[in-house]
Amino acid sequence: MVRYKCQVTYDGAAFHGYQVQPKKRTVQSELEQALTRLHKGETVKVTASGRTDAGVHAKGQVIHFDSEINMPVSKWQVALNAILPGDIAINSVEIVEEHFHARFDAVGKEYRYFVDNRKIRDPFQRNYSYHYPYILGIEQIREACAHFIGEYDFTSFCSAKTEVIDRVRTIYELDVSLEEEQLIFRFRGNGFLYNMVRIIVGTLLQVGNGDISAESIPEIIAKRDRTFAGKTAPPQGLYLWEVFYG
User: Fold this and answer.
1) Catalytic residue among 53, 87, 153, 175
2) b vs e for 211-239, b when ≥16 Cβ sit within 10 Å of the residue's Cβ?
3) Which residue range forms the structural domain that includes residue 36?
């Protein structure tokens, strides 16, 4: 038995998220169906670095699976991409040690969130960025970003549906750039809670339009109460960009 690690890209627009759900199209179900075909009907399970919600995309999701098929990694990539639907692609395949775990061995992740700040929406971007046509104070947003960097309990910035008890996470980098009326938020951290990135982006946009002050961010973090943070930004602007391993 050999364990394989794959980096996967997918367009999340037509998926009900990553994780298998009954009678719904998901990324995991498509991956497992493709592997099962290659294994002539034998069920093959995949494990990912983490879940993504419906409508969320990935540039660098990482999965692992076990197989007894003796095939070069280059052929694994070709074979899987030949079977998978057009909105999923295998970027790379490598053999890893049998104890490697895509989720538990991850030491950090990078997410990016794209905001279309043009007055008139681009219909071709409706599934890939959040159209927010309001005037924004970029310097105020950057000032607020700095307050998120560090180790904090991010209860104020996660969904009420969050199941984990330990909500302390470390954000190493958080910045925003403006490219041709598109804002790109970049997050790097050791882990992220459910909806954490989307809630922080929603809060930062409200900082940019003056609804929330940049100086209030430390107080909102300290309250550990979701009701004090901003709105949750929609899923289509979010991308799991990269997963880091030790």
Assistant:
1) 53
2) ebebeebeebbeeeebebbbebbbbbbbb
3) 2-96
